[in-house]
Design a protein that fits this description.
alpha+beta; Four Helix Bundle (Hemerythrin (Met), subunit A); four-stranded antiparallel sheet; three-stranded antiparallel sheet; 18 strands; about 60% helix; extended; disordered C terminus
Length: about 1050
């Protein structure tokens, strides 16, 4: 059911709960719930079964109410099936399906469509409710020739809103053409017409709106200019139009002030002097004439025609200024329509017909309604009356002409406004209704040097021709003329329009505005319901439903429903019954069978009339039932015939089949024998051919002959092969690809050898090895060449490192030089390296001696190396090289000697117990038990190669078991604990201080901590800790001595070092 709603007018609802006390709970379509008395719910309009159907014709609704009509309109709106802009669409359709002949270089259809941009630019404007509102009425009469092709068009305009030129409602705009001109006019013409921006003109900036969303004024100006060209407007004509438009804008900037004396006169203010000059320039009129025409008024007084000039005050002068602007624009708009008609309304040689398209303003109700709204609404009333007269009266006339009884149906006329009461403000009615222009302004305009302005303000006697003269006027030569007001002109135009409309078959398109906010996808239910009411839609549907909503011609009804009568179809086909008699008997039979009531149908003179949609549905049901009965009869007869035919012909057909099968079997047996013979011969011949080809291919494959394999494979092309041949051909193709690949690789390898392309040779050698070519001479040569080049580059890189830093690779420099000579490195480079080596060879010997002393903890060798290093440093002249000579080795040697001095001092002061305790603490850091003797220690050097190797084995053991085995090997070698302690300390010193052997000391902080290492510390931590421990020996074990003894011991230790 439908329930009234304050916002949406009507909403679908359903009863969800019947509450005690006579109330019912209803759920609305938007999810809200309301509680209403049950008796009110029972009176509500029902939705009907057609609520969710797509109804093209609202007359077909089974439940007719305001809510159902509004619901289907809303449904169409949400499905984008409603359009509010139709006039242009109708013209597009007409010009598309009936495009006419050619006028000049352009078709009439093109020119008709191009007239829209011009007329819309000059006659449309933005209003509060529409961004492109038509502010004039337009009747377009499209003419068609005998071939039903467009041959011309005539346009009649109605009531242009001239007051919009000088004043607009807030947030509305003036006519589009002003903004388009300012946005897109040519720069040179802009400068000539003294045009700037929209904010500089009073007629454009007062409303507070100069832009329209989604409207590009510059682009629209280009479209308008193209339309002018299509309509054959000359360049001078369009230039004159822009002169007039610019003059109107400059006129609006004219302001007036009092003369300053006691008179009521006025003059143009000093601030408007520049604007006055621009007006005179664009209209090509003297400035004095313009100022005189705007500030004074000339009239004729007395019976003798005395001329009286009255000066105007500033207010009256301003009104005169606006009158001039409106006159210029209104006359130019009328001239544009006449000019377009001259192009479109071409005379046709033969008889013509026409289709008229009326695009006129809709009913307008504003807060302030003036003379323009009165005229607009009056025109809508006339059109609404025509709609009522056509829809309702034509309906009754049709019933009368068909001889069908009808009820006395009444409808509401529009004696009052059909849209409701409207309040009009009569202030200014007389001035707006008076469409006359001051004689002073007319005289001034006729002095213009602009051709278009002269045309617009021609005298009446200049356009009347020679029909007027002294004798054709009343006595005294005076000519009485009655001034025709805007209202009377508009009324005459409407009367003429109604005559045209009544002479045609009208079709009405009702444009429904969905909301006042110009917002998409917003449906204002109450607004749309009011529009549907005012359009008379409910009355039209009501009378159709009260009468006969379905009308079907006799022929169509007879063809469709003759089957529901008895033998009607055959009687009609034999010409015994007319179509009207067939329709009557069919309906009478349906009535007798209970499918339709007698009062719901009538047979007219040419049509059959049905009241409800259900009546047609019931007739369709009856027709389906009759069709099913006839189909059953036809099926039974057909089945009888089929069975009878099978029974009587079964034996004969069986005998025929058996004889045919026997003959076919014999024929097939002979044919099969022949085919088998032929096929076996073919197979033998084919196999012998395949075997020959296979043998040839295998011979070529065994020889690995690329041409032979290619030739043998080509013989198989286009031949149907056996499975054996396919496998051999596949193997041959694989071998051929392998041979070609090997050939390509060997060729590329030779090129790489010539270029010494090492990356290329490496890649090609790997590919050759994959293909089994590794033992070929070229491949072996390439592999040896790559190896030699790599060795050569490695040796060369090491020698370069040596030249950059003579400490790098210095131990192996002799071997590197021999390798360089063997590998063919440039002798000059080798000689340069050899010179450097010979220069530093003595220093290398000294460094080697120092390193061996540190690594084996040999004091005598260390002292010998230190002395030699000192002597060498004294001989060197370069101070920087002196400081860097054996720097790391000297530091390491000094620290080892320092540790030995500490050890000797501690042993002398504290005995073996203190040293034992110190050793135990060091062992606790290493987490390793040691039992080592000194049986294998050489005299002078604490660490031999064997002891060092065993200690390395303990330190680097990967598993716990291997570490224990290495410890047992040490215990087996030495069993003296005191000697073991010395060895442990010496191994630690040698490992920590020999930085050249352990490069990880240079990045000790990146070596992960591993508690299973021999030291239990990082190399850098061990190094730092050993220094700290050595520096703290005297403090910890020599605290009992006096300061003097400490000093003597320190001096003695220095002497020993």
């Amino acid at each position: 059911m439908f329930i009234q709603d304050d916002v949406e007018a009507w909403q679908p609802a359903r009863v969800v709960k019947q509450e005690p006390g006579g109330n019912a709970t209803l759920e609305l379509s938007d999810g809200r719930s309301v509680v209403m008395p049950s008796d009110e719910v029972a009176k509500m309009d029902q939705c009907g079964v057609s609520m969710n159907l797509d109804m093209e014709n609202l007359v077909d609704l089974d439940a007719f109410s305001e809510g159902s009509i509004l619901h289907h309109v809303r449904k169409r709106f949400m499905e984008d099936k409603i359009y509010t802009y139709t006039a242009k669409k109708v013209l597009q359709y007409l010009t598309e399906v009936a495009g006419g002949g050619v006028s000049g270089t352009k078709t009439i259809a093109d020119q008709i469509m191009e007239s829209n941009p011009v007329l819309e630019a000059f006659g449309n404007a933005k209003t509060l409710r529409n961004n492109n509102s038509s502010r004039f009425g337009k009747w377009m009469e499209v003419n068609f020739n005998q071939a039903n092709k467009i041959c011309g068009c005539r346009i009649v305009n109605y009531l242009l809103e001239k007051s919009r030129v000088v004043q607009q409602t807030p947030m509305e705009r003036n006519y589009h053409v002003f903004y388009m001109m300012l946005a897109g006019i040519d720069p040179s013409l802009r400068s000539k017409l003294h045009l700037t921006s929209t904010d500089d003109y009073t007629y454009l900036n007062k409303s507070g709106c100069t832009m329209v969303p989604n409207l590009d004024d510059e682009e629209e100006f280009k479209i308008m200019n193209e339309a002018f060209k299509t309509l054959d407007f000359s360049t001078s004509e369009t230039t004159d139009i822009y002169h007039v438009l610019a003059a109107i804008l400059h006129i609006g900037n004219l302001n007036f002030e009092s003369m300053g004396d006691d008179s009521d006169g006025s003059k143009i203010s000093a601030s408007s002097a520049a604007s006055l000059k621009k007006v005179a320039s664009t209209l090509q009129v003297r400035q004095e004439d313009i100022e005189s025409a705007l500030t004074s008024k000339t009239s004729t007084a007395g019976g003798r025609g005395s001329i009286v000039t009255v000066k105007l005050n500033p207010t009256s002068a301003t009104a005169m200024r606006d009158a001039l602007a409106k006159a210029l624009y209104g006359k130019m708009f009328d001239w544009l329509v006449v000019r377009v008609n001259d192009i479109l309304n071409k005379p046709s040689p033969g008889p013509t017909s026409h289709i008229g398209v009326l695009d006129i303003f809709g009913f307008e109700v504003f807060k302030h309604n003036s003379f323009e709204q009165l005229c607009i609404n009056y025109a809508n009333e006339k059109l609404q009356f025509h709609f009522n007269d056509f829809i309702f009266n034509e309906e009754l006339k049709m019933y009368k002409s068909e001889g069908v009884p009808y009820e006395n149906i009444t409808f509401k006329d529009n004696g009052d406004h059909f849209a409701g009461g409207v309040e009009y403000d009569a202030d200014g009615f007389m001035e707006k209704n008076n469409d006359t222009t001051s004689d002073t302004l007319l005289s001034m305009a006729r002095t213009s040097g602009l051709g278009l302005v002269k045309k617009l303000f021609k005298r009446d006697d200049e356009t009347a021709g020679s029909g007027a003269g002294p004798r054709g006027t009343p006595r005294g030569g005076r000519k009485s003329k009655k001034i025709q007001t805007i209202g009377s002109q508009f009324n005459n135009q409407l009367d003429s329009l109604m005559v045209s409309l009544r002479a045609t078959m009208p079709h009405f398109i009702r444009c429904v505005k969905s909301n006042h906010d110009k917002a998409p996808l917003k449906f204002d239910g109450r607004l749309c319901l009011d529009q549907l009411k005012y359009a008379g839609l409910f009355e039209a549907i009501r009378i159709r439903k009260a009468g006969y909503s379905y009308r079907i011609p006799h022929m169509a009804f007879a063809r469709r429903f003759a089957i529901i009568g008895n033998n009607l179809l055959s009687l009609h086909n034999n010409g015994k019954l007319q179509e009207s008699q067939v329709c009557l008997r069919a309906l009478e039979n349906a009535t007798e069978c209970g499918y339709i009531e007698r009062g719901n149908w009538e047979v007219g003179k040419t049509k059959v009339f049905l009241k409800e949609a259900n009546d047609k549905t019931h007739l369709e049901d009856f027709r389906i039932t009759r069709c099913q009965d006839m189909a059953t009869r036809i099926a039974s007869v057909f089945r009888m015939f089929r069975v009878r035919k099978e029974v009587f012909k079964d034996k004969f057909e069986k005998a025929q089949r058996e004889a045919k099968i026997k003959a076919e079997n014999a024929k097939n047996g002979n044919a099969a024998t022949l085919l088998q013979t032929m096929f076996r011969g073919h197979c033998i011949r084919k196999r012998s051919t395949d075997l020959k080809l296979i043998v040839q291919l295998k011979i070529a494959m065994s020889d690995e002959s690329e041409p032979g394999i290619t030739d043998a494979l080509s013989r198989f092309e286009g031949v149907r092969m056996s499975s054996l041949a396919e496998s051999v051909v596949y193997a041959g193709k694989q071998l051929l690809r392998s041979i070609q690949e090997r050939r390509k690789i060997l060729h590329s390898l030779r090129l790489a050898l010539d270029r010494e392309d090492v990356p290329g040779m490496i890649e090609l050698v790997e590919r050759a090895s994959i293909l089994g070519l590794g033992e070929l001479e070229d491949v072996r040569a390439a592999r040896d060449r790559v190896k030699k080049i790599k060795e050569k580059r490695a040796v060369h890189r090491k020698l370069l490192d040596f030249l950059a830093d003579d400490t790098r690779h210095s131990e192996s420099i002799i071997q590197l030089l021999d390798d360089a000579r063997y590998l063919g490195i440039d002798e000059r480079f080798i000689a340069k390296v050899d010179v450097v080596y010979r220069d530093i060879a003595p220093r290398l010997d000294i460094r080697s001696k120092l390193r061996r002393g540190v690594e084996t903890v040999d004091p005598s060798l260390i002292m010998e190396g230190m002395n030699a290093a000192e002597e060498m440093a004294n001989k060197m002249e370069d101070s920087s090289r002196i400081q860097g000579f054996c720097g790391a080795e000297k530091v390491a040697a000094a620290r080892v000697m320092k540790m030995l001095g500490f050890e000797e001092e501690l042993m002398r002061q504290s005995g073996s117990a203190s040293l034992r305790r110190l050793t135990t603490e060091w062992d606790s850091d290493s987490n390793v038990d040691h039992e080592v003797g000194r049986a294998d220690c050489a005299e002078g050097a604490r660490l031999s190669g064997t002891v060092t190797a065993l200690c390395d084995a303990v330190s680097r053991a990967p598993t716990e078991q291997q570490r224990r085995d290495a410890v047992r090997n040490l215990e087996a070698l030495v069993d003296d604990r005191r000697a073991l302690d010395k060895v442990i300390r010496s191994y630690k010193w040698g490992r920590v201080y020999s930085a050249w052997k352990f490069p990880e000391l240079n990045a000790g902080d990146t070596v992960p901590f591993d508690p299973e290492l021999f030291f239990g510390l990082r190399p850098l931590d061990a190094y730092t800790r050993s220094l700290f421990t050595a520096d703290s020996f005297l403090e910890e074990y020599g605290g009992a001595q006096g300061e003097e003894e400490k000093k003597e011991e320190a001096e003695r230790s220095v002497d020993q070092r």
